[in-house]
């Protein structure tokens, strides 16, 4: 007859919770490991060696010590679990034996025996004082009268003396998650086991191929969800942007109306500014093209003739001309540059063909040049 | 949302993902393009607003300056477009001249009229006499720009194009 197994301990198992499988169904061995090798492969080999059943008929998991030099392997015959019970594991994040709280000590516990009674089940753990992992674990659904027998059994398994210290706890199990670690803790203190993702994968007793497939499915679903979430976030950002633009457009329309209403006033101010500037210029400065031309004419050699003179602003003449003697243009330029009222002379063009030199000058007078040369307007 | 998504079948999830991706691919570039356009419009609006504020901040200073400039002009000596036309016609008598006028700038009490005078085949003495008469009416009449060019067909003769301004006193607004 198939032994009855305990029900799933956590009601949230199907939503990715933790399931605790009854510890009394497991047999436990501590096996040495080569720390540089793959722990899972070494444990699989070890299980095949010590198990009375083929590995394919077992649910097993393991926990290594911090130095990865040994592992505590816990295995159970599959037929000890009902089909309903195993089906209930499919949605669980991890399936651990009930004694998993004893598997993650961060320091080496003192040699001795720990006994925990919880829900009609007695967990007896032997520590050899050399490893963070228990030397032996025995779990039985027993009453207090059989306890001495259990202690004797575990002393035999762990090779411990009869006077080994025994400590008893009746603490409930507390489960928390911190920084991507699962932490199992006895409510009364005394023992705390930390499982990171890798340790949870190792300790999960379910079929390893199923677990691998499950991890792949989970990874694919996570990627799909993350992709969808990113796209949804993008769409939400677009919506926020659209609403923001709508609000901005409304504000801009109001602002533009206000600016349009003010525009005629601004135009009048601009006109007043332009007119004031122009009147100031007219009253103080005048364009004197003939006087400027006369100033240059005094220095013009007879062979140089101006063909056109164009004013540019108040102080500049654009002069085109020609000369029968090319050297005279150079003399003219030098003489003009020496005039006190001249700011600069730029030769824009000078070409000689068939003995005639064509020139193009831009001559700039200094503002108030007539006063500089001592004349008056 | 996560529960809803993960409760769908794989095919439904893929379809949702594809549709959402198409939506985002269509919407995001369109939104970003309009956002960039809106930013440019906003910058232009801000610039326009700042420019107006600048003019308003200088309003009293400009009006005072315009009033001060206006005081330097004797309204009785100003010439409107017709008067300027008549005066320039008189000055250019004896010269081969074409005269045309148009108003260009107006503000408050004054307007500036532009008159273009084109003189052809004139000797330098004629041009200088025109200039002397013009200078006598300064600053109410004055040269704004001029082009003098030699007449190649007639040595010693020039052609000249003057752009001349005249200041006009406008009647006070009621």
Short synopsis of the structure:
Chain A is of the alpha+beta class. Helix content of chain A is 37%, strand content 29%.
Describe this structure in words.
The complex is a heterodimer of chains A (377) and B (174). Chain A has 377 residues and is α+β, with helices and mostly antiparallel strands. Chain A is 37% helix and 29% strand. Chain A has helices spanning 39-50, 83-87, 147-158, 197-203, 208-284, 289-297, 326-337, 369-372; strands at residues 18-21, 26-32, 58-64, 70-77, 94-97, 112-118, 121-127, 136-140, 166-169, 173-178, 181-186, 192-195, 304-312, 316-323, 342-353, 356-365. In chain A, the strands form five sheets. A four-stranded mixed beta sheet of chain A has the order 8-7-6-9, with helices on one face. Chain B has two domains: 2-54; 75-169, Ribosomal protein S6/Translation elongation factor EF1B (Alpha-Beta Plaits, 2-Layer Sandwich), CATH 3.30.70.60. The interface between A and B is large, with 50 and 63 residues. Strand 13 (304-312) of chain A pairs antiparallel with strand 3 of chain B.
Number of E strands of chain B: 4
Distance between the termini of chain A: 132 Å
| Lateral strand order in the biggest sheet of chain B | 1-2-4-3
Order of helices and strands of chain A: EEHEEHEEEEHEEEEHHHEEHEEH
Describe this protein with a few key phrases:
heterodimer; A: 377 residues; alpha+beta; four-stranded mixed beta sheet; four-stranded antiparallel beta sheet; 37% helix; 29% strand; disordered N terminus; B: 174 residues; Alpha-Beta Plaits; 2 domains; 5 helices; 28% strand
Q: How are the SSEs placed, and which strands pair?
A:
The complex is a heterodimer of chains A (377) and B (174).
Chain A: E1 18-21, E2 26-32, H1 39-50, E3 58-64, E4 70-77, H2 83-87, E5 94-97, E6 112-118, E7 121-127, E8 136-140, H3 147-158, E9 166-169, E10 173-178, E11 181-186, E12 192-195, H4 197-203, H5 208-284, H6 289-297, E13 304-312, E14 316-323, H7 326-337, E15 342-353, E16 356-365, H8 369-372
Parallel strand pairs in A: 1-5, 6-9
Antiparallel strand pairs in A: 2-4, 3-4, 6-7, 7-8, 10-11, 11-12, 13-14, 14-16, 15-16
Chain B: H1 2-7, H2 10-57, H3 59-71, H4 81-91, E1 96-107, E2 110-123, H5 124-136, E3 141-150, E4 157-169
Antiparallel strand pairs in B: 1-2, 2-4, 3-4
